[in-house]
């Protein structure tokens, strides 16, 4: 998947969860790139948008490994992400197990 086809953190809305796939490589080694890394914005980390500011959605409050961090929308645009599907996507509202292995285990217990 190319970086251009991915979402950026700045494009997420309140309550959306995502995995960080990259920090904009054009800014690799920059002060901003280092600052994002120091705040915990690293590849593979799951994040969630908790709040958006009242004026144009700036700043964003983002949960990063349980820590709430405020980040400017312009900085968030440099964080490339992939959405994490919600539980409803997989039928959590139904009684069906999410994993086929769960079916086998349930059958073995009865």
TrEMBL record:
The entry's keywords: Iron
Species assigned in the record: Govanella unica
- Boundaries of every Ferrous iron transporter FeoA-like domain copy: 7-83
Designated name of the protein = Ferrous iron transport protein A
Q: Name one GO molecular function term.
A: transition metal ion binding
Which SMART domains does the entry link to?
FeoA
Q: What is the lineage of its organism?
A: Bacteria, Pseudomonadati, Pseudomonadota, Alphaproteobacteria, Emcibacterales
By its UniProt entry, which SUPFAM superfamilies does this protein fall under? C-terminal domain of transcriptional repressors
Pfam families given for it? Answer: FeoA
Gene3D superfamilies noted in UniProt: 2.30.30.90
């Amino acid at each position: 998947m190319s970086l251009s086809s991915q979402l950026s953190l700045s494009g997420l809305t309140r309550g959306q969860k995502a995995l960080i796939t990259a920090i904009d490589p054009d800014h690799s080694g920059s002060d901003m790139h280092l600052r994002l890394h120091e705040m915990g914005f690293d590849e593979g980390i799951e994040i969630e948008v908790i709040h958006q500011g009242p004026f144009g959605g700036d700043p964003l409050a983002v949960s990063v490994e349980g820590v709430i961090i405020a980040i400017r929308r312009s900085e968030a645009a440099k964080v490339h992400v992939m959405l994490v599907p919600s539980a409803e996507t997989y039928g959590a509202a139904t009684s069906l197990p999410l994993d086929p292995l769960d079916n086998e285990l349930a059958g073995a217990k009865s």
